[in-house]
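User: For my dataset I need records formatted as: sequence, then structure tokens, nothing else. Please produce one.
Assistant:
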Amino acid sequence: MTERIYDIVNGGEYEKYARFVRRCFELYSDIPVNEVLDLGCGTGGITSVLAGYGYDMTALDISPEMLSVAQQKLAGKGVLLLNQDMRSFELYGTVQGIVCSFDTLNYLESAEELETVLGLCRLYLEPGGIMVFDLNSRYRYEKIYGRNSFVYEFGDDMLIWQNCYRRDKAKCDFYLTMFSECGDGYTREDETVTETFFPLGTVRKATEKAGFTDFMLFGGYDLSEAKSDSEKWYIAVKAK
């Protein structure tokens, strides 16, 4: 079910996010960015836009279902698709840019896993290259998600999104229920996913340990300053 929801929830952000990534590459990279890894690419929306900009894209995701959708979306664009776990991924060579979007890193379970993934990213990112990623902020988990519920209608389909943020564990459980029209009735699909909140100090320490420098923190695609009520943290770091 997640692959069906992915484009519905994130589709309106693909162009804006990709423009933000390109701007970070142009402003902050010490080397020309030609080859880019989309880590946790989902259904390939951002990959597609970046490929359209002329980047040589590699798209990696743990979900075969996500990659199946991405394969159709990216047909003819020369993108290399890899079905791998980001905690242990391998590339065929190095890249000059990495993007990891839509709170993909929040799906990691611990600070140790975050350090592992960032370490692998640094391994495959050429010195002077840029990694761009985002994380959900404390404000989003506590004030937006919390124990709130949301209902979304998509044509004849409906998504019920219930949240449970466990502050003591820094974990947020998402209980997703999709009702889809089927003949004279509806089918129901249920799924539960969990995210981890990582404080900025933990994130900064993990990037430094992995071999990144120039920790740049933004509150939006416009490179604006992150504030206490920013729902997302957008971060760019440079490989030493």
